[in-house]
Amino acid sequence: MCGIVGLFLKDKSLEPELGRLLTDMLVTMTDRGPDSAGIAIYGAENGSQTKLTVQSDDADADFATLADDLGRAIDAPVTLRRKDTHAVLDLPADQASQARQALRELRPGVRVMSLGETMEIYKEVGLPKDVAARFDVARMQGSHGIGHTRMATESAVTTMGAHPFSTGSDQCLVHNGSLSNHNSWRRKLAREGVHVETMNDTEVGAAYLTWKMQTGSTLGEALESSLDDLDGFFTFVVGTKDGFGVVRDPIACKPAVMAETDQYVAFGSEYRALVNLPGIDAARVWEPEPATVYFWNH
Amino acid sequence: MQTFDLEARGLRDLNSTLQAQKDATNQTAWEIVNARGSHAIAVGLDAPIEVTVKGSTGYYCGGMNKQATIHIDGSAGPGVAENMMSGTVIVEGDASQYAGATGHGGLLVIKGNASSRCGISMKGLDIVVHGNIGHMSAFMAQSGNLVVCGDAGDALGDSLYEARLFVRGAVKSLGADCEEKEMRPEHLEILRDLLERAGCDAKPEEFRRYGSARKLYNFDVDNAAAY
Prior knowledge:
The complex is a heterodimer.
Chain A: E1 3-9, H1 18-28, E2 36-42, E3 49-55, H2 59-63, H3 66-74, E4 79-83, E5 86-92, H4 96-106, E6 111-116, E7 119-125, H5 128-135, E8 144-150, E9 165-168, E10 171-179, H6 182-191, H7 201-214, H8 219-229, E11 232-239, E12 243-248, E13 257-260, E14 264-268, E15 284-286, E16 294-297
Antiparallel strand pairs in A: 1-8, 1-14, 2-7, 2-8, 3-5, 3-6, 4-5, 9-10, 10-11, 11-12, 12-16, 13-14, 13-15
Chain B: E1 2-5, H1 6-9, H2 11-19, E2 29-33, E3 50-54, E4 69-73, E5 88-91, E6 107-110, E7 123-129, E8 143-148, E9 164-167, E10 178-181, H3 185-197, E11 208-212
Parallel strand pairs in B: 1-2, 2-3, 3-4, 4-5, 5-6, 6-7, 7-8, 8-9
Antiparallel strand pairs in B: 9-11, 10-11
InterPro entries (chain A): GATase_2_dom, Ntn_hydrolases_N
Pfam families (chain A): GATase_6 (PF13522)
Organism (chain A): Sedimentitalea nanhaiensis
């Protein structure tokens, strides 16, 4: 099954509430997928800094001196905010690729969750309520966010198999469904030089979108072409620095409900996820059409 | 009128209370508040009672209904009134996928739109949709009537048996072995009755009828591509 929630705020006065609202939505979807949970949240920009969100299974050892070690390696100031098994490294945006290279050498056990000016991704194995509590998601602020709770079908229950998957700087993807041609796309993408880390089908979907965008497509065009190229069941929800998109495969078995008011656009795998949102009784509520790309921008 | 707070008392209490109502019950009117999109609300009822659900429902509301009249004052999630035997289910808003799936009897009225697979494998149920329906509706539908006042999506009536399909608007495409058929006086009578019972002011003459071409009933190698 899997459960997806998403919230894209139009009304800035709700931004301090984003983490709390998303946590409530995600916990409501627990019985659609209790294996692992994750959240991508789009917070405030910090000048010319970029955020590298990383994860470690041995966070005490890996994170203790990481900011200093990485700062020396790239010869630039790096600050670290730890959240449980994750940490957000703030560093100059123009040093991001050197930092990733240096991180691989300094801390081979540390995994990159996301990179971006505003996006942070947190994900772990466990129930949504536990995962949300570990990262204190309820207190996070931001303009939009996407959450996912997973019932694994195509690959192992691991942190790296959890959603969201990052599809590029400030871009993320969550998926409900299963792709049936992910192995052939993994081989095609490898020939194009695109590396996929896990055996997970969704990561291939994310890598596909990244590759499409690297080769000139907009996110909307990449989503359109996914309808032709990806086989299987999918409801995808994607986030960008200032946008939020939804697409369902042409068969559209995987459920999806959307709600829109003057204050927000919200997505839920089920209506249950939306019932505590402010003004939901007066919201326009509808089911997104199959094989149709929906997109909102700030 | 009995009022039942679903949030306070829970789903199991609700369904066992409603299922315990018998033909002679004097508690004939029920209102369920705080539905909040919950699954399996008012399923397996078997008494001539009236149940109104305030708000939208999740999966399978009114499933397996016999005799009862269930009114959803909101939209319905997937599988509303699935496998209904008799009685009436009325949805004020929209219905999600496979509304009325496998239903044997009774009447399902959807005042908004229904999405994909509406009436899939229906076996005698009548469905009236005031708005549009999605793709693959009435797939393998065996008997009963599906009335659509708006448009129908792709592959209407694919692999259809003997259900009658009436559509007022456009049909995006017909499924394998589904074809337009002549509208005869007896069909107009069926339509008039269903539209009236569904509170719909459309005129029977505005509809077209679709049914099975009966070419896929038995295996024929010349039809291999259509199976």
